[in-house]
Amino acid sequence: MILYDNDLDADAYPVRLLLSVLALPCDRVVIDSSPLALRGHGPRGPVLEDDGTRAVGAAAVLRHLAAQYAPNWLPPSGDSLLPALTSPRFAPRQARLLALFTAEGPPLGLVEEAAHRLQDLDDHLTLGEFDGCPWFAGERPTITDLAAFGPAALSNDYGVEHDAFPALRRWIRRVRALPGFVPMPGVPQYC
Amino acid sequence: MIPVSLSSGVEPGARTGTSADGLPVVVWRGQDGTVHAWADRCPHRGMRLSFGFVRENALTCIYHGWAFGPADGGDGRCLSVPAHPGMTPPAKATVPALPTVEALGMIWVGTTPGDTVLPQDAVGREPVHPVRSVTVPVPAAALRAAFEAAPPPGTEIAETSCDGVLTFKGPADLVIAAIQGRSDGTSSAHVVTVNPGVPGRKALCAWAALVRDHLAAAVLP
């Protein structure tokens, strides 16, 4: 099994999290997956080659790994969050990339949109906690939680903090407490 | 005193930044369950302590690892400096600790050393059950007005409401929304109810979020 990714690439972070949480052995090939290198061409996000199967993009790689090695990490059918969380157009992702890779940074409207998406995640978790569901898809963690973690935990990169999102804070601590959790640049080792 | 969070918003080992009437505050809870609210500024290099982390019953600055906590001389004392493990930290390396009280299922903070009085409506209502907090990009007065104008279904605003605490009474419920002025024209409301039922609290969650979303939509350019 070979993963093509880069430690600085937040799009691949959920895949690194899943590999680590499941303790799956995987060779890694570092690629330059920055938006500047990929502008206009090349597959975006992580690429996984596993026994003749090739998965491109975080959602496909996560689904492949979970289906092959840990079906209990698949979200229940009908879970609609994973595609939005891994979309290149997800506002928290766009705002962060513009903050990191452009001199002018993200436009204010995009930052507000990103904060609104984090608010949606906080609302979802707030209601779930009443029903005894501490994770995005219910009572147990799934690949949807791993896909949401990077965009949520890295929001400081574009200046949005978590003081207005108590349920998101509680859930971030849950993810960090998963056995095998690994940080990435921008996610503090200690917390 | 000003409410800065529901008690359930800061669990043991957790910390968060917030602001109380313009004052940056770090709120954290030790593993012993004691909640602390301090000025959000490390006395060493000015780093925000809310970027730090809780170990046992101390808050550690993310910048150089100075650990602060309760000690014989009071709360907020520097307990250790990793770069000088043998040194006894000087007394002036102390974070200003603010008066902190847990009441009504919320964490209340005084913005001055003598500010230790809870609003009268915050006393004697317990037990209460948490609903949620909402944060809006409008000042506290506008948030208060929005809640007053739209009580939870089946309740009406009680005449006893004082400035920071709104009480809604109905035949089957008593709902309290405590208003927090933050900074830069933003504010929060922390909502609790005496009714433990989950469907009722989820409905109140939706109500608070609706008030929030209407306020947020109204300030769009």
Question: Largest protein interface?
Answer: A-B, 17 and 24 residues
Largest sheet of chain A: 4 strands, mixed
Class computed from helices, strands and strand pairing of chain A = alpha+beta
Tell me the Rg of chain B in angstroms: 19 Å
Sum up the overall morphology of chain A in one term: globular
Strand order of the largest sheet of chain B: 11-15-14-13-12
- Overall residue-averaged pLDDT value of chain B: 93
Helical content band of chain A: 40-55%
Number of helices of chain A: 8
The helix-and-strand class of chain B reads mainly beta
CATH fold call of the largest domain in chain A: Glutathione S-transferase Yfyf (Class Pi), Chain A, domain 2
Order of helices and strands of chain B: EEEEEEEEEEEHEEEEH
The number of helical elements of chain B comes to 2
Number of strands of chain A: 4
- Span of the ends, CA to CA of chain A: 32 Å
Total domain count of chain B: 2
For this structure, what is the CATH class of the largest domain in chain A?
Mainly Alpha
Helical content of chain B, roughly? Answer: 10-25%
Number of domains of chain A: 2
> Termini distance of chain B?
34 Å
Write structural notes for this entry.
The complex is a heterodimer of chains A (191) and B (221). With 191 residues, chain A is an alpha+beta fold. Chain A folds into two domains: 2-73, Glutaredoxin, CATH 3.40.30.10; 81-176, Up-down Bundle (Glutathione S-transferase Yfyf (Class Pi), Chain A, domain 2), CATH 1.20.1050.10. In chain A, 45% of the residues lie in helices and 8% in strands. Chain A contains eight helices and four strands, in the order E-H-E-H-E-E-H-H-H-H-H-H. Chain A has helices at 13-21, 35-38, 58-69, 81-85, 91-101, 108-130, 143-153, 166-176, and strands at residues 2-5, 27-30, 47-50, 53-56. Chain A has a four-stranded mixed sheet with strand order 2-1-3-4, covered by helices on one side. Chain A is globular, with a radius of gyration of 16 Å. Chain A starts with a strand and ends in a 15-residue tail after the last helix. Chain B has 221 residues and is mostly beta strands. Chain B has two domains: 2-109, Rieske [2Fe-2S] iron-sulphur domain (Rieske Iron-sulfur Protein, 3-layer Sandwich), CATH 2.102.10; 124-218, 2-Layer Sandwich (TATA-Binding Protein). In chain B, 14% of the residues lie in helices and 36% in strands. The model of chain B has no long low-confidence stretch (mean pLDDT 93).
